[in-house]
Design the sequence.
């Protein structure tokens, strides 16, 4: 069971997560959506392949109440894992995602597709297709 663990404030990253989930399932793998507050780093520490979604928040950082503390713990266990990252953003240029990628890579993880998928605001049809394609890559990772 591949977990798609996400946080959302206004639904855009959730829409991405739902499309990523569909992409995994359409590629023939079992997957589930998990809101980040409903799991713990220990719960997912054994997952060889996993997806995380979080929008750009603060000033180009992860959401600070749930996602940042989760990642500070999770990154100590991510060596050798294949991890997909995605998230929605507003006015920035994706710095939060580049920082997130680097953080996990420096702890030994591989980022599926080489980089996180970022989408401005809500995903349109093309954005949904990009999310589904990421799901397929996760299923094949
Ligand atoms: C408190 C707050 C801080 C934000 N900070 C950034 C930011 O630093 N860079 C950016 O590109 N967008 C920023 N945004 C915009 C959100 O990333 C954008 O609205 C996104 O679509 C929200 O995703 P969500 O619907 O999954 O919560 C911020 C939004 C809020 C509410």
Sequence:
């Amino acid at each position: 069971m591949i977990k798609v663990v996400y946080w959302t404030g206004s639904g855009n990253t959730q829409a991405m997560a739902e499309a990523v989930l569909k992409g995994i399932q359409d590629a023939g793998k079992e997957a589930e959506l998990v809101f980040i507050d409903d799991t713990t780093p220990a719960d997912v520490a054994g997952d060889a392949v996993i997806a995380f979604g979080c929008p750009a928040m603060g000033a180009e950082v992860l959401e600070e109440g749930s996602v940042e503390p989760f990642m500070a713990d999770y990154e100590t266990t991510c060596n050798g894992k294949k991890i997909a990252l995605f998230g929605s953003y507003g006015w920035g240029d994706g710095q939060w995602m580049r920082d997130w990628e680097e953080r996990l890579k420096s702890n030994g993880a591989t980022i599926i597709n080489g980089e996180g998928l970022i989408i401005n605001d809500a995903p349109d049809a093309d954005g949904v297709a990009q999310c589904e394609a990421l799901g397929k890559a996760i299923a094949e990772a």
